UniProtKB/TrEMBL annotation:
<dbReference type="InterPro" id="IPR001660">
    <property type="entry name" value="SAM"/>
</dbReference>
<feature type="domain" description="SAM">
    <location>
        <begin position="36"/>
        <end position="83"/>
    </location>
</feature>
<protein>
    <recommendedName>
        <fullName>SAM domain-containing protein</fullName>
    </recommendedName>
</protein>
<feature type="region of interest" description="Disordered">
    <location>
        <begin position="1"/>
        <end position="31"/>
    </location>
</feature>
<dbReference type="InterPro" id="IPR013761">
    <property type="entry name" value="SAM/pointed_sf"/>
</dbReference>
Length: 613
């Protein structure tokens, strides 16, 4: 054997040994084998010592994913063409993985999580998601100002399937009655952990097979627990369950969600009424099961729990006597809350910033646009038509599932896209040659900055900078070269489709790199659709870069308003699309289908008026 061959064998042995050591790291693969894709099964087999690459290819061609891997036996593998030796090694390695996971069933839950805001109260179509293991930054609580919701957490992961619905309905009714009697808004969460088993407020998530069953359970429980005269009131105060998606730590989808029910006891609905609930308990007498008389309960919020006052005669009577005053406090709190009317000029601010002051995209100061974005939501596709019209030179996408069911999928249906990994931007030849290969002037270059194509594995937030940070910096440096894009004539738009919460988030590092390359924020625009997302982003950037980006952010407009405002800045679209005026000097498109449904109305639109006013 030659020295070269010896070295090759040695290197291969070293790589195999290192891979074996790393093969069961929790960060590499989902904790549950059932969640492994066929690509992840292939990667796992490739890491096994003394198992040839051909074995991984056989399993991949047979579409062996996690669930089918668990079912394979020796004869199955041999029938597929795997020889006996590798078969035994593969079966043994699989059992070792199962054993390791069974010894640490809650290991992913034990990791310290990052702070997270709860889902917005009484909202259902927000694009908000939770990250597994993150910690809600609100504690279980009682009434505060009656408008700010109190919270209660239920892990709900150890409840047997057959008992889940009874647990859900009984907890919801108790919490709801307590909030209604205390006249405070509230949210009860199922799939959020509490001490001693978990960190208080830790996002766990639960698998839900039938979402409709939970809504039917809510309705039935209200009918069964509340007095007949208050059933309608309870239906109005106890909102339908909301199922908030829980993402894995690397922001890929999981099969889990957090179930949440909001309680809103509006003063006009509840007036001065009090709400008892009635529980019918089953008891066995001799050999016959009978139903006892319903027991009456009167719940109120007391700190982080719900307390029954029926047996406490004096305290119960005092609470009922003060109900008129409590109802008036609720009414006053609502009036104060509703007086906060949105007054904004961010529509005109957006117009000025995205055109560079020309107020028209037909003659915009900016010749090119770069989009930087993160995890999208299916509902976003309704309001992102402006991206197609901007025809961006490049999109830096940090959603690893964008090509499956994200923004890239939507964009690809409407426009011409060239998908790339960041490594394609590394300068290894002439800049012009690289630009031609990337088709920068012909197609939108879609850069997958956290994997998702070509079997590139996504990285967790804490690992991204080490794994992929350098290659994304190469992309930014390339795009900011004067011989690639016109100097000071391109705009970088940070489109925050998900809230950025952590200082190690890749978007924070990406902003910092653009800020340095462009020597300031004049060529940067940040778009998000709510104040919480803006505040988190602003604080993170100020901590990282020491700059206040408030003046370069649009956050008081919904994405529908952003979309309409930008679309209205093209003269060709003014002829094709009709626009309605909206708050903050913004505009929204009037859909032709909706306009045709208005049989009794004729609509005068902005672009029919002289000067567009």
């Amino acid at each position: 054997m030659s020295n070269h061959e010896v070295n090759c064998v040695s290197e291969e042995g070293t790589r195999a040994t290192m891979a074996q050591k790393d093969q069961l790291k929790e960060e590499d693969l989902p904790s549950d084998i059932n969640n492994w894709s066929k690509h992840q099964v292939r990667d796992w087999v490739l890491q096994l010592k003394n198992v040839d690459v051909s074995v991984a290819d056989i399993l991949f061609k047979q579409d062996i994913s996690g669930p089918s891997l668990l079912l394979l036996d020796t004869s199955d593998l041999i029938n597929m063409g795997v020889t006996f030796g590798p078969t035994k090694l593969l079966i043994h390695a699989r059992e070792e993985v199962i054993k390791l996971k069974s010894e640490k069933p809650t290991s992913s839950f034990k990791k310290p999580g990052k702070p997270s805001k709860p889902y917005p109260f009484c909202r259902y179509h927000d694009t908000f998601r939770y990250i597994e293991g993150s910690i809600l930054d609100v504690t279980e609580s009682g009434a505060s100002d009656l408008i700010e919701p109190c919270h209660e957490y239920k892990a709900f992961i150890n409840t047997p399937d057959e008992a889940k619905m009874d647990k859900f309905t009984s907890e919801v009714i108790r919490f709801a009655a307590a909030c209604m009697n205390s006249r405070t808004n509230g949210t009860i969460h199922f799939g959020i952990g509490d001490k001693p088993d978990f960190v208080h407020g830790q996002v766990l998530g639960v698998a839900v097979k039938d979402k409709e069953a939970y809504e039917n359970g809510r309705k039935s429980a209200i009918d069964g627990y509340f007095e007949y005269k208050y059933k309608h009131t309870a239906q109005m105060c106890i909102k339908p369950p909301r199922f908030v998606e829980v993402l894995n730590r690397n922001e890929t989808s999981s099969d889990k969600c957090v179930i949440e029910v909001d309680i809103e006891p509006q003063s006009a609905i509840c007036e001065d009424n009090i709400y008892h609930t009635y529980i019918t308990k089953k008891a066995k007498k001799k050999t016959k099961e009978t139903e006892s008389q319903p027991s009456k309960c009167f719940y109120i919020r007391d700190g982080g729990s719900s307390r029954d006052l029926v047996a406490l005669t004096k305290e119960y009577q005092q609470f009922i006597d003060q109900m008129p005053q409590l109802s008036q406090l609720r009414k006053n709190a609502e009036e104060k809350h509703f007086k906060r009317i949105k007054s904004t000029t961010q529509g005109s601010k957006l117009t000025h910033m995205i055109t560079g002051g020309t107020l028209s995209l037909d003659k915009s100061h900016f010749e090119r646009y770069i989009i930087v974005t993160n995890k999208s939501h299916p509902s976003h596709s309704e309001n992102l038509g402006f991206l197609i019209e901007l025809d961006p030179t490049a999109v830096l996408d940090f959603d690893p599932e964008s090509a499956q069911h994200g923004l890239q999928t939507y964009f690809d249906q409407q426009s011409s896209v060239s998908p790339h990994l960041p490594a394609k931007y590394k300068i290894t030849e002439g800049v012009e040659d690289i630009a031609n290969k990337l088709k920068l002037t012909r197609n939108t270059s879609w850069v997958f900055c956290n994997g998702g194509i070509e079997h590139e594995t996504p990285s967790d937030i804490d690992q991204w900078l080490m794994d992929k940070g350098a290659s994304v910096r190469d992309v930014i440096s390339f795009l900011c070269r004067k011989d690639v894009l016109p100097n000071k004539r391109f705009l970088v738009i940070f489109l925050l489709l998900s809230t950025v919460r952590e200082k190690m988030d890749p978007l924070v590092e990406t902003f910092s790199t653009f800020w340095q390359e462009l020597r300031g924020t004049d060529q940067i625009l940040c778009l998000c659709d709510n104040e919480n997302a803006f505040t988190s982003w602003k604080d993170l950037i100020e901590t990282r870069c020491g700059v206040d980006i408030s003046g370069r952010c649009i956050y008081e407009l919904s994405f529908a308003e952003v979309n309409g405002t930008i679309l209205s800045l093209w003269s060709k679209n003014r002829r094709a699309i009709r626009f309605l005026p909206c708050g903050g000097e913004s505009k929204v498109p009037l859909e032709k289908k909706f306009e045709r449904s208005l049989n009794a109305l004729e609509v005068l639109c902005v672009n029919q008026c002289e000067g567009g006013n």
